[in-house]
Design goal:
Number of strands: 0
CATH topology: Globin-like
Largest sheet: none
Bound molecules: protoporphyrin IX containing FE
Strand content: under 5%
Radius of gyration: 18 Å
Mean pLDDT: 90
Helix content: 55-70%
Order of helices and strands: HHHHHHH
CATH class: Mainly Alpha
Amino acid sequence: MTNRTTNVVELNARPAGPRDPVHPSITEDLISELVERFYDEARKDERLGPLFEQRIEGRWPMHLARMKDFWSSVLLKSGKYKGKPVPVHMAISNIESDDFRLWLQLFRKTAEAVLGQEAAQPAIVAAERIAHSLWLAKFASPFDQVPDWMFSKSA
Ligand code: HEM
């Protein structure tokens, strides 16, 4: 048996569905609920709401589906999302630095409510890392300090 064949057999032998979740209790259904609740709240937020609405108006079902694939890829390593969030956010010129604080505050609250306190922690750590890299791409100069709201105290 060649190495190539062995690899194929190993891949086929993997169970279908999520691979390597950041926490064993996280499922596609919970991710779907997390995304729906996050955007329900974000759309009501007086600052974040208009930021999303201006760009996404009329395309919400597509955006929500895309975000479910994104979080499935991050939290379950499902590989469903193909895209480049950095250039997408670079193109949104009216996002301000403090908007990332509001975004993270809402994500932490929603993740804890939907996933539970324990499973939310690795999801929050992942969100903070990605938010940090988006924030760096958009705002940071080499002399900037990362704001202390970027990472949870416990992380
Ligand atoms: C300041 C906070 C943020 C704002 C206002 C914001 C806003 C937006 C908007 C308006 C879009 C839709 C762009 C379009 O389709 O035209 C978008 C897409 C997206 N956002 Fe954010 N975002 C923020 C932070 C984040 C963070 C922290 C993450 C990840 C942890 C994230 C992940 C994504 C992803 C994956 C997409 C889809 C990109 C694609 O089309 O492939 N965003 N965001």
